[in-house]
Design a protein that fits this description.
The protein has 179 residues and is α+β, with helices and mostly antiparallel strands. The protein is 31% helix and 27% strand.
Length: 179
């Protein structure tokens, strides 16, 4: 795997959603979507979410992409509306392992968007990045994300009492892996 990661061209799509790079033009949309308390409940997204948070996230994601540590996208629907965010993050090239992280905008929940995004990102990362394993970790109470992991082909492999990242809610985390 080369150091800098590149977004696929053409963008990843399954005909229902398309994964595209995020940019400065998305700041207002991200700020609006990330006011949803369910996003901050299960992720490291701060609440309240500000323009500075969105701009910082975009900049940090670009640095991670350039360093080969992660790559992320916004999932858009057929009308071009942002419906989710998906990332292959915390890439550990020496172990051939990465982690899937995502959130879904409230109006898009329950429509299979997360499962579609996870499948697209997972298939791409395993094929194009040469990763052998992808992890997806969910809080024990986040049953919806556990369902997404299973529907996207991940298998429950373990649990941990340690949140996988700083800033996440305390509790047990269920670890899923693919393939």
């Amino acid at each position: 795997m080369s150091a800098m990661l590149r977004h696929p061209d053409p963008p990843l799509s399954d005909g229902v959603i398309t994964l595209r790079a995020k940019g400065r033009d998305d700041v207002d949309t991200l700020v609006a979507i990330c006011q949803d308390p369910e996003i901050s409940r299960w992720t490291r997204v701060p609440s309240p979410y500000t323009r500075e948070d969105a701009e910082g996230w975009i900049a940090a994601a670009e640095l991670d992409r350039q360093a080969g540590l992660g790559i992320d996208w916004l999932a858009v629907d057929e009308q071009g509306e942002v419906v989710a965010s998906i990332a292959v993050q915390h890439i550990r090239p020496d172990e051939s392992v990465g982690e899937i992280g995502y959130w879904v905008a409230e109006p898009a929940r329950g429509r299979g968007i997360a499962t579609r995004a996870v499948r697209l990102a997972t298939d791409w990362a395993l094929r194009e990045l040469g990763l052998e394993t992808l992890e997806l970790m969910t809080h024990e109470d986040n049953l919806a994300s556990q369902g997404v992991a299973r529907a996207a082909g991940f298998t429950e492999t373990s649990e941990t009492d340690v949140p996988p990242n700083e800033g996440l809610a305390p509790g047990r985390y269920v670890v899923f892996t693919a393939p």
